[in-house]
Design brief:
Strand content: under 5%
Oligomer: single chain
Radius of gyration: 14 Å
Number of strands: 0
Length: 99
Amino acid sequence: MLPGEQPDSLPPALVALLRMAPEVGQRVNPMIVLSMVGFNRAQVGSYLVEARSQVIEWLSAADEAEVVGDPEEADACRHEAEGWWYTAEDLRAALNRFV
């Protein structure tokens, strides 16, 4: 979710995956990811694109916060970016199951 964005503007399964993002290096099993999106390759790909986009947006927000001198906001944005990065990696691993 982008800063100020409502959670319901994202697909519920993607938000659920984000909430499952690990704090310390553990990953969500690709089969669990696939079951959450109904084993739909196109859906996994779409969620992966969205998750990667979120990483970029949150890192940009962190940079903007640094520029205006708000290190706490920058750290919070980087933390969100990290959760999205893990989510994207979990989606990528699930997508690889189709290959």
